[in-house]
Amino acid sequence: MLYGIKIEICAGCLQDIETADRYTETDRIEVNSHLEEDGLSMDPKTFTKARQMSSKQLMCMVRPRGGNFIYSEDEKKEMYNEARFFLEHGADGIVFGALQESRELDHSFAAEMIKLIHSYHKEAVFHKAFDASDNLDTAIQELIALHCDRILTSGGRPDCMLGSDVLAHLQQQYGNAIEILPGGGIRADNVTALLKKIGCSRFHMSLRAEDPEQKLIDVLEALREDHHQGQRVLTREDQAMFEADTYENSMEDLTDTHDHF
Fold first, then answer.
1. CA-CA distance, 241 to 59, in Å (whole number)?
2. How far is the C-alpha of 134 from the C-alpha of 96, rounded, in Å?
3. pLDDT tens per residue, the chain (261 residues)?
4. Across-strand partners of 187?
5. Class of 6-249 in CATH
6. Considering the entire predicted model, what is its pTM?
7. What are the CB-based long-range contacts (under 8 Å, 24+) for 142-147?
8. Which residues pair with 60 in a beta bridge?
9. In the Cβ-directed half-sphere of 191, how many Cα atoms lie within 13 Å?
10. What is the 3-state secondary structure (H, E, C) of the chain?
11. Would you call 66 exposed, middle or buried from its count of C-beta atoms within 10 A (0-12, 13-18, 19+)?
């Protein structure tokens, strides 16, 4: 966590996990494979290595294939069994999603998965299948009723910048009932503006870049710079009045060091 901002890294391999784990500012790691397909389940043996190498919260993606989020009964059984394996081997939560042909939430499967995850006292996260649903408000209301813990979303759009108005609506309308986790296209040049517009203090970002570690460093620096700018609470006029006040000049400098997020 950095200045009260919770940071989740989307990792597609052990190297990404190792990178994210080195930075104390990162809080959670979403464990995936095949990020070129927007994230699939990690191989069980690879996950076991990941759990051994990282002390951070590991949220395991459970997704059997790329493409749409409408799954056969066999695929849903596979997802359920994968989730149970990860939970039994140290996962801190499961990330999943499923829709019906109508693009409505696959209510019965979501209920089954959330019940399984909560039976291990872990977190249930509905991924960006949410963004492909026919009605975001209806879907989020259903997920709240099912006691889902978190939704990963870009507001129904390809990235958070395009979906920022919807994300702000979801946060304002439902943020007290379920955690809204913005994810998709978050970079150093937009992270602070997005968080302020959405009104939340958390985000999800991948390390997909020519230099993955530098991408993370740049985002952390952007957050630090914004925080330090926020600490400059005195205008020139304020400073002049402060210097002219003999009583204030006799006092110690009591600069506010509290986080602004």
1. 52
2. 18
3. 999 999 999 999 999 999 999 999 999 999 999 999 999 999 999 999 999 999 999 999 999 999 999 999 999 999 999 999 999 999 999 999 999 999 999 999 999 999 999 999 999 999 999 999 999 999 999 999 999 999 999 999 999 999 999 999 999 999 999 999 999 999 999 999 999 999 999 999 999 999 999 999 999 999 999 988 875 443 344 444 444 544 334 433 333 333 333
4. none
5. alpha beta
6. 0.86
7. 142/105, 142/107, 142/110, 143/105, 143/110, 143/178, 144/174, 144/177, 144/178, 146/107, 146/110, 146/111, 146/114, 147/114, 147/118
8. 31, 94
9. 29
10. CECCEEEEEEECCHHHHHHHHHCCCCCEEEECECHHHCCECCCHHHHHHHHHHCCCEEEEECCCCCCCCCCCHHHHHHHHHHHHHHHHCCCCEEEECCECCCCCECHHHHHHHHHHHHHCCCEEEECHHHHHCCCHHHHHHHHHHCCCCEEEECCCCCCCCCCHHHHHHHHHHHCCCCEEEEECCCCCCCHHHHHHHHCCCEEEEECCCCCHHHHHHHHHHHHHHHHHHHHCCCCHHHHHHHHHCHHHHCCCCCCCCCCCC
11. exposed
Structure tokens belonging to residue 252 = 């110690």
Q: Whole-angstrom Cα distance, residue 80 to residue 75?
A: 9
* AA identity, residue 39: G
Tokens of 184: 């998709």
* Separation CA 123–CA 58 (nearest Å): 10
**Which tokens is 126 given?**
């509905």
* Euclidean distance between CA atoms 92 and 86, whole angstroms: 9
